[in-house]
Amino acid sequence: MYITITNHRAVFFMPSRRGQIVLMINGNRFSKHRESYGKIFWRCIRRNDGCKASACTVDNKVIHDYKATFVLSRRTGQRVLLLNGQRFTRHRKYEYDRVYWRCSQRSRGCKSCVITMGNVIMRYKDDHNHN
C-alpha cells in the first residue's frame, strides 16, 4: 500500500496558465489527477519525464503528515532517513532531486521503501515485516 506523505510547510494552490488549479509543494507543481471520497489526488507535472511523485489532499490540506528526520550514520557517515521509528538507507538518486530509500532491514526481506524529493517525502510504501 502506497501512502503519499509530506513533512513541510511550503504548500499552496495557484492557477495554472490555462486556468486550472495547481498544487505547489516546495516549488514543485502538481496537477489534479482524480477525486475519490472527498480526497483529491495530484501528480507531478513532470510525470511525462518519468517523475512519479504524487500527493493527496483533503479539504485543501496535504494529508498524512508524518515526521521524518535525516541524520548521519555514526558507523558509515552516510545520510539516513528515520521515519516512524524505522531506519532507511539511501539506495539510489534520480533526476529532479528524487532519492529512493530502502528499509535498513531489507537484507531480512523487508520491502518497505520511501521516495523523497529534496527533504520532502513524496511516497512511503509501509510494508515492514518486522517491528
For the termini, the CA-CA separation is 17 Å
Assembly form of the protein: single chain
Strands in their spatial order, largest beta sheet: 1-13-12-11-10-9-8
Percent strand equals: over 45%
Q: Which segments are poorly predicted (pLDDT under 50) over 5 or more consecutive residues? A: 1-8
**SSE order:** EEEEEEEEEEEEE
Number of separate domains:
2
Number of helices: 0
Number of E strands: 13
**pLDDT averaged residue by residue:** 79
As a percent range, the share of helical residues equals under 10%
Shape: elongated
CA-atom Rg in angstroms: 15 Å
Protein structure class: mainly beta
The biggest sheet, with number of strands, parallel, antiparallel or mixed sense and barrel status, is: 7 strands, antiparallel
Molecular structure report:
The protein is mainly β and 131 residues long. The protein has two domains: 2-62, no CATH class; 68-125, N-terminal domain of TfIIb (Single Sheet). The chain has no helices and 13 strands. Strands 1-13-12-11-10-9-8 form a seven-stranded antiparallel β-sheet, with no helix packed on it. The model is unreliable at 1-8 (pLDDT under 50).
Task: Describe the SSE topology.
Layout: E1 2-3, E2 11-15, E3 21-25, E4 28-36, E5 39-44, E6 54-58, E7 61-62, E8 68-72, E9 79-83, E10 86-93, E11 98-103, E12 113-117, E13 120-125
